[in-house]
Design a protein that fits this description.
By secondary structure, the chain is mainly α. Helices cover 73% and strands 0% of the residues.
Amino acid sequence: MASQRDPRLDSIKASLMFLVVFGHLLEGIKSTAPLLSQIYDFLYLFHMPAFVFLSGYVIKDNQGVNYRTLVRHIIMPFITLSVFYELLELLINHQFSQYIRSGAPNWILWYLYSLIIWKLLLPIIMRLRFPLCWVLLASFAFSLLHFDGYAFGILRSVIFFPFFIAGNIARENQYFSLTRWITKSYAPAAGVLILIIGYGVSLYLDTGLLYGSVTNASLGYTPLAGIMLRTLYYLAALGCIYAFCALTQAATMLAQMGTRTLVIYGLHGPAVKFAFWPLIPNVHTPWQIIITSVTAILLTWLLSRDVAQKVFNSGTQWTGLLLMPRSYTESGR
C-alpha cells in the first residue's frame, strides 16, 4: 500500500513551484529595473534550495537506492526533457544549446541531473559521521577551484548537496523536523521576520553565488571572503526555507497541484524561454510585475492539469520503451 502523502508538504511544493515559474519569467526582464533584480535574487536565495531540501526530506530509506524508481521517475524524465529541449533549440535557433556543447544539462534540467547524483550518493554520505559537515567541506573546496562551474553540472551538484542532506537529516532528527517547527503557533510571525531578513541578506550576495554555478575566483572573491559569503548564504537560505514552509504549509487548496511539480517544472521552461521572454521586456516596468505574476499563476495551473500529466507520462514512457524495452514491457507502469 502506497504511503499517504502529507498535504502540508504538497502545499509547500505548489507554492514553491509558483515561485520557480515566476523567477524564471523574471530572468528575462530583471535587467530592466533594480527592483526586479532584487526580487529575483531574493527568490534565488531560497526557492531552489527549498526544493532540494524537500527532495531530501521525503526520502524515508537513506541506506539504499531504489534503482527502478530512480530510473522511472527521475532518469527517464531527465532524458525525455533533455531531448525535447534540445530539439526545440535546434528548431528555433538552428543549433544545439550551449549547455550540451559544454556537457551540461540544459538550463533548468540541472536539478533533475543533480537529483540523480544526490540520490545515488545519499546512502554513502549518510553512513559517515557528521554527513552535513562533509558535504559542506566539499562545497567550500570546490568553490575554491578554478574551472567552468557549468561544465557537466558539477558545481551545482556540490553546492546544493548540503540542502539535500540537511533535508534528510531534518526528517531523521526530531529536533530539526520540518513539521515540528513550521506548526508552532509563532511560526508564521517568525517566518515573516526571517524572510525580511533574508531579503536584506540577498542584497549583499552576488547572483552568480546564488546560482551555485560560479566559483569564488570567477566572482572575484578571495578564498576567505568566498567561504564567509557561502556560509552566510547557507544560513540565510536554510532560515528562509523553514520560514517559507511555515507560511505556506496551511495552503491545502494547492496540495493537488503540489503532487505534479515535476511536470510543471519540466514543461514550463520552453514556454517561458521561447514564448514569454520575447514579449515581457516590451512592457513598461509597473506592469511587468503584474503580468509576470498572472502569467506565472496561469502557467503553473495549466501545467498541473491532467492533460499535461498525460503528455508528460507518455513522453517518459516512450523513452523507457526505447531505451529499456524489456523492463518497461515486463513491469508495466
